[in-house]
Design brief:
Elements lengths: L1 E5 L1 H8 L9 H12 L3 E6 L1 H6 L5 H10 L5 E2 L19 H14 L10 H16 L4 E3 L3 H4 L2 H8 L3 E2 L1 H36 L5 H32 L2 E3 L2 E3 L2 H19 L6 H5 L12 H28 L1
Helix pairs in contact: 2-9, 5-6, 5-8, 9-10, 9-13, 10-11, 10-13
Length: 319
């Protein structure tokens, strides 16, 4: 599941959506819908409370403080003038201090304590520290100063920053990947059953028509999911050796053979020829195995593809 950390400006835009200054309201509302439906994990940091407490409008501040209590809150580093004892903030280790200094150099180089917005900028840094130490995926903000440094934050600190619009596009893309992988898995299962019927000489005209319909659909869609599927296969065939993992020449051939066979069977228009393709390592599919061996190997290969698709789908759904 994707873990999002919302910046204070997003919370204010979302909760005070009638304000003339509110932006990204529709995108934030849609992101919240994903959160409420359990498709993404949304949290705010303890510095949101600090930011909102600076609001000079007492009524609005009081209402905001009440409403942010519905958000799960993650801690950042302790600052004596800001952190509460029960806030969840943690003492700054040397590692966190280095991170904080790095973030300061990236976003606010040359920041001085006499800067009129010093406390706000320190809070911005603390938001990002919290995001990083809690291993969140995307920091969502409309802060132009932070967005301007998105590439540097990603390359130097490993923090992915997006505005609400790009975040929503990312979520929708991931959701579409899950939907496509699920549909591909379901259609391949139908395809497999027709091939098994053909091998048993039990295929009828309706099944033959359905076979071609499924085959054409999968030929069109395979390029979209192929990289993700092969990456999943790659991770599954890595061999553990102590703390290291070894990927050998045989594994490379296994991955290539899987790819070649899958492309080969989907290009074949006659289900009766599938066993010749699924049971050979040769790209011209001229095999030497008996019919029984071809059938057994075809069943094993079709099961392997089906299991790989289900495993890949499971990975996507868990992200």
């Amino acid at each position: 599941m994707i873990k999002l950390t919302l910046d204070t400006n997003c919370i204010i835009n979302l909760l005070d959506y009638k304000s003339n200054s509110a932006i990204s309201v529709d995108e934030l509302a849609e992101i919240m819908r994903y959160g409420l439906e359990g498709d993404v994990n949304i949290a705010i940091t303890t510095r949101v409370d600090s930011d909102i407490n600076k609001d000079k409008d007492k009524n609005r501040k009081g209402e905001m403080l009440k409403r942010i209590s519905m958000f799960p809150t993650i801690g950042t580093i302790v600052r004596l003038d800001i952190s509460r004892l029960d806030s969840g903030d943690v003492l700054a280790s040397e590692k966190y201090k280095v991170l904080g200094n790095e973030l300061k150099k990236i976003i606010f180089p040359g920041l001085k304590k006499n800067d009129p917005h010093y406390s706000n900028k320190i809070n911005d840094i603390d938001h990002l520290i919290s995001h990083k130490i809690n291993q969140r995926d995307i920091f969502v903000t409309d802060d132009k100063q932070i967005l301007k440094k998105a590439e540097a934050l990603k390359s130097s600190a490993g923090i992915k920053v997006m505005d609400p619009k790009k975040t929503l596009e990312y979520i929708n893309l991931r959701a579409n990947q899950v939907v496509l992988a699920k549909e591909f898995s379901e259609k391949f299962n139908e395809y497999k059953n027709i091939v098994l019927s053909a091998m048993n000489k039990e295929i009828n005209d309706a099944q033959a028509t359905k076979f071609e319909e499924l085959r054409k659909w999968m030929v069109r869609k395979l390029p979209v999911i192929k990289d993700g599927l092969l990456n999943f296969k790659f991770r599954m065939i890595l061999v553990p050796t102590g703390r290291q993992r070894v990927f050998g020449q045989d594994d490379l051939m296994s991955l290539r053979t899987f790819n070649d066979r899958l492309n080969g069977i989907l290009r074949e228009r006659d289900p009766l020829n599938i066993p010749k393709i699924a049971s050979t390592y040769q790209l011209n599919y001229t095999g030497y195995r008996s019919e029984k061996e071809q059938i057994n190997m075809t069943i094993l290969f079709l099961n392997s593809v089906e299991d790989s698709l289900l495993g890949y789908l499971g990975v996507l759904e868990s992200q």
